[in-house]
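Priority: medium. Attachment 1 of 2:
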């Protein structure tokens, strides 16, 4: 099992926008409160990120009562010139866990025999 790091300061490899998008990809009906807790952000920060992603066409949502259902545009190309041609689907394939990799709680990952060198 991969250990989850504690609190953090300084730079990271993944942006908050990517973290929020991955949380939504993992559960299209996820609540903003749950995204915030998972990504260790404020609810307001998550709302701003979702707004950014919707404004640029990476994400949309429909509302049913009090529930939002998000839809990610997997073929949309990433914004930075260094990732020219890479799609949201390619990014999410690295960030989102497969159902078969889950054990118990969200966020826990396992390594199966033969997975050690495999990129996710």
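Attachment 2 of 2:
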């Amino acid at each position: 099992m991969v250990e989850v790091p504690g609190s953090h300061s300084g730079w990271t490899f993944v942006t908050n926008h990517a973290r929020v998008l991955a949380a939504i990809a993992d559960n299209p009906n996820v609540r903003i409160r749950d995204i915030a807790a998972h990504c260790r952000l404020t609810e307001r920060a998550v709302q701003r990120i979702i707004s950014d992603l919707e404004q640029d066409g990476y994400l949309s949502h429909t509302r049913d009562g009090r529930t939002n259902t998000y839809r990610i545009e997997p073929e949309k190309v990433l914004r930075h010139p260094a990732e020219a041609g890479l799609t949201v689907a390619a990014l999410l394939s690295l960030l989102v866990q497969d159902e078969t990799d889950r054990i118990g709680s969200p966020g826990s990952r396992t390594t199966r025999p033969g997975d050690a060198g495999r990129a996710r």
